[in-house]
Design goal:
By secondary structure, the chain is an alpha/beta fold. 27% of the residues lie in helices and 40% in strands. It has helices at 10-21, 24-35, 50-58, 71-81, 129-141, 215-223; strands spanning 40-44, 63-68, 86-89, 101-106, 111-116, 119-124, 143-155, 162-165, 170-180, 186-197, 200-212, 226-231, 237-242. Strands 1, 2, 3, 4, 5, 6, 7, 8, 9, 10, 11, 12 and 13 form a 13-stranded mixed beta sheet that branches. The longest helix has 13 residues, at 129-141.
């Protein structure tokens, strides 16, 4: 199993994400508007707790568990969320939390959706199809019957190559590389990340994602017992429902 970790860039994560990469208040409001009576939540890839914090500000009655397997990120999420949420170390492929949730959501976490033109491609932080299938099955196993699996939709331009000033003289840069597989509805997406100050590299990393598209997305989700319900009107989330 290979899965992307954020140890090397955790120090700069918040500054990057909150400087135009995501609008957390807006994304929390969108998620909050569809959850309604679903209160017991699991955030996979909780990171530093940025979205969970905004959700709890909107509704403190949410029972949020956040899971991540990067210790440096978990330290930050625990400091941010305190006793308002439960934060545990683990990964979605092997997690066994021995409880079920009304909704499991991923926001820039181990699974998500990328809008490519008019199409939606499913991405996985596990760059292996068999592991991705196991991950989806494990997610479904942690949902109540009729529970939701909600994936953040990322616009293609978010992952465009380029540089961004994130403050304190630090420049964040990313560059992607695509590797399509012949006669298969999947490809690999690799992104190089770096943080520089006055030309000197402070930290860098490379992450590899598996991308699924076309009929393969529906077939893979269906095999895990997940059925597409809707995309939110603001095109921020894709909602799947666990079917019996």
């Amino acid at each position: 199993m290979t899965i992307n970790k954020y140890d090397d860039i955790a120090e700069y994560y918040d500054a990057t994400m909150t400087n135009g990469y995501y609008d957390y208040p807006k994304e929390a409001q969108s998620l909050n508007s569809i959850l309604k009576s679903r209160k017991k939540l699991l955030e996979i890839g909780v990171g530093t707790g940025l979205l969970a914090e905004k959700l709890l500000e909107l509704d403190p009655s949410y029972e949020i568990t956040g899971i991540d397997f990067t210790p440096a990120m978990l330290d930050r999420s625990k400091a941010r969320l305190g006793n308002r949420a439960k934060v545990v170390e683990g990964n979605v492929l092997s997690m066994n939390l021995q409880e079920s949730f009304d909704c499991i959501y991923s926001h820039g976490g181990p699974a998500g959706v990328c809008r490519v033109g008019k199409d939606y491609h499913l991405y996985s932080f596990l760059p292996n199809f068999e592991d991705t299938v196991k991950m989806l099955n494990n997610i479904a196993r942690h949902l109540v019957d009729g529970g939701w699996f909600v994936l953040n939709i990322q616009a293609e331009e978010i992952d465009a190559d380029g540089e961004q000033d994130i403050g304190n003289g630090i420049v964040y840069a990313q560059q992607k590389h695509l590797d399509f597989l012949e006669n298969k509805e999947m490809y690999f997406w690799e992104t190089d990340y770096s943080f520089k100050k006055e030309g000197a590299i402070l930290a860098k990393d490379r992450h590899k994602f598996l991308m699924l598209y076309g009929q393969l997305v529906e077939e893979t989700m269906k095999a895990a017992g997940l059925k597409l319900k809707e995309a939110t009107p603001d095109d921020l989330y894709m909602v799947y429902e666990k079917v019996i």
